[in-house]
Design goal:
Blueprint lengths: L2 E3 L3 H7 L3 H5 L9 H5 L2 H9 L10 E2 L1 E2 L4 H14 L3 E11 L3 E6 L6 E9 L5 E7 L2 E6 L3 E9 L7 E5 L3 E10 L3
Antiparallel strand pairs: 1-9, 2-5, 3-4, 4-11, 5-10, 6-9, 6-11, 7-8, 7-10
Helix pairs in contact: 1-5
Length: about 180
């Protein structure tokens, strides 16, 4: 199950430094190939071929370079929301206009995931996932959107991302392992 919500004001304020990236985005992609790689049809081809993709096959995005201080700020902020958990950064991306990440499962790194995404164009980027043989297209809200879900090796969560307009995404693995 995907839990979608607006993150707390504290988390949002501690993410504000990322808006600097948003203010000077990379050039838009001239092609809309991402619509193809995040389509229901493409997923059906993967499923027909019995794929269990851990990492996406194709993506068009940029990695955001975070300083140690910025990472510490994020870890400390999330530690308050997820006590008794180890928190690992699993991705820090800037999707330019028409950027994307094709269908994948992350099945080799099971556990709880938290993705925090930012856009100034509500409904113009989305997180798409498969649930009970149905494809759900979950559009981003204006500002920060949080999505929390579990990656399970026995029940693969196929998902993809497409950004018609610029989008920031910061992902975390949350591991409940501390006393």
């Amino acid at each position: 199950m995907i839990r979608k919500y607006q993150p707390s004001k504290k988390i949002q304020s501690n993410l504000d430094f990322l808006k600097d990236y948003y203010d000077s985005p990379p050039l838009p992609l001239k092609t809309k190939e991402g619509e193809s790689y995040t389509s229901d049809r493409y997923l059906n081809v993967l499923l027909k071929n019995n794929a269990v993709e851990d990492v996406c096959e194709v993506s068009r995005l940029s990695h955001i370079n975070l300083t140690s201080q910025q990472k510490s700020l994020l870890y400390n902020t999330l530690a308050e929301e997820y006590p008794s958990c180890s928190i690992l950064l699993s991705g820090h991306f800037f999707y330019p206009e028409n950027g994307y990440m094709s269908w994948h499962t992350n099945n080799k790194a099971p556990g709880l995931r938290l993705y925090l995404s930012y856009t100034e164009h509500e409904g113009k980027s989305f997180f798409k996932y498969r649930k009970n043989d149905k494809i759900i297209k979950d559009s981003d809200m204006y500002g920060w959107t949080a999505r929390e879900f579990k990656i399970d090796q026995d029940n693969l969560l196929w998902h993809s991302v497409y950004a018609e307009k610029p989008r920031i995404s910061i992902g975390f693995r949350i591991i409940k392992n501390l006393l």
